[in-house]
Amino acid sequence: MSTDTITPEVPGEPHTAVWHEVDGIIEHDNKLPNWWLFTLFGAMVFAVVYWLAYQTTGALPSLREVYQQDVAAHEAKQAADAAARPVDDASLTALANDPTAVARGKASFTAICSACHGQNGEGLVGPNMTDNAWIHGGGKPMAMHLVVSEGVIAKGMPAWKATLGDNGTKDVVAFLLTLKGKNLPGKAPEGTPE
Fold it and tell me: Exposure of 145 by Cβ count < 10 A (0-12 exposed, 13-18 middle, 19+ buried)?
């Protein structure tokens, strides 16, 4: 049974809201707080404006378009940097004398290469990088660059150019050139002595 009444909730006090009783359950018609209504209507307005700006009119670029623009700008910058720094024995040897490039190369080596070549290049699964014996093409800078960038899949060495980029590959080779000839104790020499 449902009844509507306008009797005050507390006898003797003025009536503030209409309340209903249904099966012994009292429902009060209280006004929602203004902050809650502001949040509700603000979210509704925002949703409509967002939908119009991004989905309907295309007035603002979508997140996908912004991402594609950022990727294109990054690739253009990498290409310009790679063109500015040619790859040859002389440039890689000069880069080995740049402490900043060597520090970047050491950080990349520690993060990526040390699992196989040891923390200091002494060799674990991969060959020792500090002796004067080299497996693939000798210890020439361009041979090192080729192995780091293209890898030697048959021997388990992955290609790292896609991960490191052109400049990162050069930095790792610069660091490897600083290791050459240190003869740290580790894995026995493999390959042809230089």
Answer: buried
Sheet strands (E) in 11-152: 19-22, 25-28, 133-134
| Statement: residue 174 has pLDDT above 80 | yes
The pTM (predicted TM-score) of the whole model is 0.56
Hunting for tokens 């991402």 — which residue is that?
A: 67
Interval 47-67: pLDDT, tens: 999 999 988 888 888 888 899
Task: Establish if 121 belongs to a structural domain.
Answer: yes
Residues in the chain: 194
When divided into structural domains, the chain yields a total of: 1
Residue 64's identity, in one-letter code, is: R
Contacts 24+ apart (CB under 8 A), 84-91: 85/166, 85/167, 85/170, 87/142, 87/145, 87/166, 87/170, 88/141, 88/142, 89/140, 89/141, 89/142, 91/170
The residues, ordered by sequence, that sit 6+ positions from 12 with a Cβ below 8 Å of its Cβ are none
Q: Could you tell me if residue 105 is inside a domain?
A: yes
**Is the separation of the CB atoms in 60 and 54 below 8 Å?**
yes
Q: Is residue 109 part of a domain?
A: yes
pLDDT tens, 97-132? Answer: 888 888 888 888 888 887 788 777 777 777 777 777
